[in-house]
Amino acid sequence: MHFGFKRVSKVYKKDNIESGHVIQKSQLGDSIPKLAKFEISKEINRMRDSNFSHEVARTGLNAMKESASKQGGAKNIWSGIKNFIKKIPGIKELDELYKNKFMVKQNDLENNRISTDATSSSKTLGMQYISKRVINNSKGIEEVKKLQNSKKINKNEGKIYWKYLNQSLDQEKIDKIYSEVKVKISNWLLKNNLLKPDSKIVWPGLDILKLKDSLIYGGYIIEKNQMLLNKETITSFYDSELLETIIHEVLHGLSNSTSTHYYTNREDKDIHNSSVKIGESLLQGLRYDSYKNTGFRYNTAIDEAIIDKTALNIMKEEFPKEYKKLNMKNESYIEEKKVVNFLVEKAIKKTNGFYTGSQLEMKFTRALINGVQKSDIKFIDNLFGEGTARLLNNFRIDSNANILLEYLEKTEVLNVPTYRVSPTRLRQDFNRREAQIERDQKNVIERKTDAAKIIVNIGDYDVYAFTPSWTLFEADDLDPKFVEINFQEQMADNQTQIELSGLDQNQLPDINITGFKTTDNFWGRSVDVRKFANGENGLNQKDVEQTKGGLPNEILNKLELVVKINTLLSRYRPYFNQRWAKNELLNYSKESHSYNNKSTTIAELYKSIKYIVALENAKQKIINLYNQDPRLALVYVKSEISWSNGKDYLQKPTFKNNFEILSLQTETRKILLNNLLEALNFPERIDINSDQLASLS
Amino acid sequence: MNPNPNPNVAPKQFGSLVYSQDFILNLTMAITGKSIEKILLENNELESQNLIKNCTKIMVDSVIHFVEEKYGKASGLRLKACLVTDDENIFSKYPELENYLNEGMNIFLEELESTI
Prior knowledge:
The structure holds two protein chains of two kinds.
Chain A: H1 4-18, H2 34-46, H3 54-69, H4 73-80, H5 82-85, H6 93-110, H7 122-134, H8 138-150, H9 158-168, H10 171-191, H11 208-216, H12 231-235, H13 242-260, H14 266-294, H15 299-307, H16 309-318, H17 320-350, H18 357-370, H19 374-384, H20 388-395, H21 401-411, H22 423-442, E1 445-458, E2 461-474, E3 497-501, H23 529-534, H24 541-546, H25 553-572, H26 579-595, H27 600-607, H28 612-628, H29 630-640, H30 666-679, H31 690-696
Helix pairs in contact in A: 1-2, 7-8, 7-9, 8-9, 9-11, 10-13, 10-14, 11-14, 13-14, 15-16, 16-17, 17-18, 17-21, 25-30, 26-27, 28-29
Chain B: H1 15-32, H2 36-42, H3 45-71, H4 73-84, H5 90-93, H6 96-115
């Protein structure tokens, strides 16, 4: 929920801004402005319903008045309510902000202890940028102009602008934006395997004050120690374009959010706009920072420079060499930009938003600068019609962009509606399948019971399995020649056991005890019951004892998990290139995590669904290795899995601690591994004897 | 033995806490027009807590907003800081805050009264 006060402040200012009036403290008078009063009433009224009693309210009010009027009353109350206040979201963060930064700066500002070093050229950009793009109230602009005229500014003085930024973007919104940006960056890093799943990001650079700084310095100077991420993370890829990509992702994430979750009300729209604004500033700051530190010239930075003359001027002043080079290239960049923008605009429409602007921009820029890549020919032709890729390739950037554009438009090549992928259709497809699964499940009686009885008929034999804590399904569409399942609710006991009738143990067939599948391979993993039952191929005596006629709970739980992972994968796999599919998968994993907390191990494994994308990548590698030699695949998987508590064989971020298969015996591990591999759709089981496995441990 | 012989005087060491708890409960009554018992009966524990928190937030925001508007952002932040830091001396460092706070509180009470 939100409260109206911040909004009131904004409206109040806006009214004054529109009339060109600068708010002075004295003009506020002795009471809250009328609008603010109105809004407070509104908030109060929201808390009331038809049961509101004037009498009760009056009693409460009188008691409050009495408390507040006592000696030190208001002060005591104020100090005392912190226990309540601390529980209000968003207010905790203020603590750090206050303690670490703001207090000192505010004092400095108040005492006018500002450096008067006028040599830094950052003042120009800082002031111009802020007055142009960020400061959106007359007071700020007035102040900026005053400072400009005073010519006593250096970059430290930029902090004074924050005072006004703080007014135009209130704290609550900034906090929200900040957390939004953090989440998006974290997700992006995780998605791209750049971050250990269990590690915590230190955010010194994306501290809210750093965001402020990036605004303050006009998105231009971000000091070396004010990097986006912690130093350790950043140093490895700072020179690459990765950092920029992250920010791009953030920006696109923010701007893409417009059409889905946001804009539900005016406040959200404001937040969104502010996010983009901050993102832009941050991005620009980083571009220049990279430029300054690495000499690497980002196209985007140059684009910005072209668009933003102010930035270009600053560049001229501070980086004369680079500016000279840049200026020589200016013309061609402008030409290239024209074509790319044109193509991106068309492509976005044609693909119905399937690709982000940056993805398209990258492809077209690449095509124009380096020539069309082989992999892009199909893409471009598919998008705009046969022959377009060749056309772009031939024109390249040395040709006049206007000629190219004219040509493209005249021939109407760009208007050929050939693109076939529609995210909406994919979504519909997915929904249809989900609905089908739901319908199928309605035909199934779901029973959650501590002990259920499964009667499996195979040929002339009956096998009874009692499984604890399982969700069982009575399905009509089971494969009749394989299993037949019935349930009996009234069980004598809830011990795990398999009873056999008319069959001696050594004759047990392979029984797919989880094979009571409904549709779409829903519960489609199998377990070799015979091997469990007779202790062959694996289980030691203890395990055999445990599994007498059944499977140990721990294994059942893990199998259930593997089944669920596979189920999820199979349902979402066809849509894996869709962002929503990944998001839903992640959400599902969260729910599953909280739902199934039977054991720590299970919980950890559930968490691993989060890294399903990484799993997908690993799967391919496992399959490749498996084709060479199953043992290689095993070694790989083993090395990626933490096999014993506190002993990680590899420190790779992707899999570290994803699968914590702890304190299980070697043979049990092997079973689990096999099931894991099965979950990854391996063609057949790996069969390695215990000695081999032990030698790998 | 009665540990607190005078029920009208809060125990010294917990003075502010008792004050504020009563105050917050009264505030909730004044805003919602329902007795605390009724609130607890009608809602589950979490909902009741949220209701109380929201009422408190309305008051806090209102007072801080007033102080910020009239006396500047810094004063508003200092008032907030009283709520989120363990620094008890903010009122000593900035004695004027107490007056600002009293003023803000009175304005809020006036406003609240006008809605009843």
